[in-house]
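Thread: Modeling a multi-component assembly for a lab meeting

Hi all, long-time lurker, first post. My supervisor asked me to bring a structural picture of a complex we are working on to next week's group meeting, and I have zero experience with this. I have the sequence lines for every component (315 residues in total). Could someone generate the structure of the whole assembly? Inputs are pasted exactly as I received them:
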Amino acid sequence: MKCTRCRGAAEVQLRAHNSAFCRPCYLLFFRRQVERAIASENMFTKEERLLIAVSGGKDSLALWDVLVDLGYDTTGLYLGLGIGAYSSRSHDKAAAFAAARGLALRVVELAEEGPGMAVPAVAGLTRRPACSACGTMKRHYFDQVAHDEGFDVLLTGHNLDDEAARLMGNVLRWQRDHLARQRPVLPPSHPKFVRKVKPLFLCSEYETAVYAFMRGIDYIVEECPNAAGASQLVYKDTLNRLEAASPGTKQAFVKEFLRTGQPAFASTEAREAPRECTGCGMPSYGELCAFCSMMRAVQARAASRAAASDRAAPA
Ligand code: AMP
Ligand code: ZN
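Re: Modeling a multi-component assembly
Sure thing. I ran the full set together rather than chain by chain. Output:
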């Protein structure tokens, strides 16, 4: 197998792109893919301050690596979700990556933000699925840190497989409001929000893993223990089977949706501008934002449990 670019010995074959690459040409190819996504979607400029949400996984660390290489002004944000050993290991990976390259990393530990704030405690007290509680916490802190610290853009490492799986989930339930907002660039709908972008939306999980491997990036390989039963994994598996039978399916699914489907949904799903949450002051569609209403539920449950245990143990 020969490299499509230089005709040297190829190390990796990409059936979706009908190409194969040697190591130096692959690194160039991957970087170009990211650069092209940034340019074609007008994601951000070299003058803007970028906040990259890094989980310690391959996608967000590969993204950070590429952006540093391209000369962008970046800061990492790691959220300690409190999911046992998985969280401490992922924190170590993100911290080691930043330290080895002299990059700034902001760390927010949920457990230190208040009692009962780590994801397992929130999920237990509110009886919500862990992934849903986790998503609400992540969104809130990403927005809050980006706003408080004056960043222009918030970046996540969502890749093509993530976007295709999310699209499949949204299509299977015809979630028009979600379909209307599934884009690689979300402009801010309120002055306290920053632009949210996903520069890896056309890079597959495999391509990102190959890039991270070739660049010697040490990332957390294990999946979050809460993800085991998540429907996202079933969608990813289904999409991988379709991809194996017909390479390029995932790209076409996402790209064509963005070109034709998404604008159609966006035109019928106008949403009023958010107001400000009476709890935290961040933008919200109701009186309280999703995060603050979840926190109220956590406090109420914790208080009623404490009262019950007081009654059970008379002085
Ligand atoms: P996931 O929702 O775990 O698939 O992650 C999607 C993206 O969210 C990652 O690529 C990161 O950019 C970001 N992310 C996930 N977990 C964290 C975390 N603990 N801290 C900061 N960013 C995260
Ligand atoms: Zn709030």
